[in-house]
Amino acid sequence: MFKFLTRSFSFLLIFTLFVPFVFSAADAKKTTYNITTDVTYPPFEFQKENGQYTGIDVEIIHTIAKREGFAMNLKPISFNSGAQMVLSGQMDAIIAGMSITPERQKVYDFSRPYYRTGVVWAVSSKSKIKNLSQLRGQTVALKTGTASADYAKSIQKKYGFKVSYFNDSNTMYNDVVVGNSAATFEDLPVMQYAIKNGLELRIPSSKVANAGWYGFAVKKGKNRALLRAFNKGLVAIQKDGTYDRIVKKYLGQSQKHYSGNSASDAKSSGIWSLLVSNWPGFLSGIIKTIQLTVVGIILASIWGVLLGVCGVAELKILRAFSKTVIYIFRGLPLLVLAFFIYIGLPHVLDIKIPAFIAGIITLTLNEGAYTGAFVRGGFEAVDKGQMEAARSNGLTYWQSMYHIVMPQGIRIMVPSFVNQFIITLKDTSILQAIGIVELTQTGNLIVARTQQGFQIWAIVALMYLVMITLLTWLSNWVQSKVKA
Fold it and tell me: How crowded is the C-beta side of 157, counted as CA atoms within 13 Å?
């Protein structure tokens, strides 16, 4: 068993250290540009029922790429994370309703402006608030890293409101709808689109503040050929009318034409109807969640057992190593660790780590640390007299561990393994922050399109409950076999 654990540790170490470099080397040979966009920012980017992304930004970049002859992969991710990924080199460019500001121009090179916008504020349709002065002492919902958030912060002291930050527009909107926040600030076309599609908000004032422009952006000094191609293509589609047709498609026609929330949809907003109409998206999210869970459980268990074995080793250096690793990775929040691996490391090491690989490494390190702690505890729970008796009979330390201590310790820790498996399944939802479209992110995307928050989240909750129940049954079955 010790040989097996040693080989497993070696494999995991090689996997963790060298897979990112393999992917980085492979990416270096590609001529395809990796471009990020937001996940829920209609009418500029949002997901259709068939899982495909659409919107003004999406159609503009696809049209320009086709005209200028460059290949690209469009990666939807939360705006703030996507912007950081461009700066870290994980992505080549971003098109996500990104306002051109002096601060951003210090670190990004922007294209020609492609859309003029401005900031408005909105309240619940049931709210009696009519002017900004009534927000004093109230909480305002803002989207992290956006120009509308910057504007709201600039007037915060004047009007005396508090702020709460969100990573996606839909959650921000619904925080106001349910009354947790009194108002939100958003770009005018985005807010108008959301309200016309059934969002229960209203714009109290027609005044548009902080008017500015959206731009396509790359890291400063990088991907200049891509930026030139975008500018050339933008001029072409503006000249021949293609640009106007794209914008009019989303903002200038009746909502039935493009909203995905027509009158017939409104009549079919029950849980069953939403489940049936969005089943392909839910299924894809479930599959991704299961993949993350299974791979994460396997690698975290191997890593955790190794840490646990090291924690009870004779050598002080191994025990110190185990304690240090467990302390570090149990102490780091999973979200911070995910951002560090996916965005921080690539920026420092100049490599590219695919989101799925980053997610697996995150789960392995975090869940493995917790596993290592209870594995060590399980071994230490075995009566010390067992080890002393084995050693007195001529067995070496590791022979005593393998034949006497480990079998008893494993039986003690099986319930902890079951609990950790369930925790790993639930923790996969946090990985949506780095662009993995698992079940929770799937729910976000569907809510953004349908505005049926209660029903969609009820479906997602039920799906998680079913998966956790099945995992518990399987774990209990394994536990009964181990005890037998």
Answer: 1
Q: Is residue 52 part of a domain?
A: yes
DSSP 3-state assignment of 105?
Answer: helix
- Does the residue 20 lie in any domain? no
Q: Is 74 helix (H, G, I), strand (E, B) or coil?
A: strand
Report the C-alpha gap between 325 and 39 in whole angstroms: 35
The reply to whether 443 and 405 lie within a common domain is yes
C-alpha dihedral (64, 253, 40, 20), degrees to nearest 10: -20
- Whether residues 189 and 324 share a domain: the answer is no
Pair 130, 203 in one domain: yes
Q: Are residues 205 and 224 in the same domain?
A: no
Same domain, 239 and 388: no
Residue 436 and residue 312 share a domain: yes
Distance CA 123, CA 103 (A): 29
The CATH number of the domain where 317 resides is what? Answer: 1.10.3720.10
pLDDT digits (tens, 9 = 90+) for 289-330: 999 999 999 999 999 999 988 888 888 999 899 999 999 999
Give pLDDT, residue 346. Answer: 82
- What pTM was estimated for this model as a whole? 0.62
Spatial distance between the Cα atoms of 163 and 161, rounded to a whole number of angstroms: 7
* pLDDT bucket at 379, cuts 50 / 70 / 90: confident
What is residue 99's DSSP assignment?
B
Domain of 139 in residue numbering reads as 116-211
**Counting beta carbons within 10 angstroms of the beta carbon of residue 120, is it exposed (0 to 12), middle (13 to 18) or buried (19 or more)?**
buried
| CA 205/CA 210 separation, integer angstroms | 14
CB 196 within 8 A of CB 122: no
Distance CA(380)–CA(34), nearest Å, equals 50
169-205 tens-digit pLDDT: 878 888 898 899 999 999 888 888 888 878 889 999 8
Report the domain count for the chain.
Answer: 3
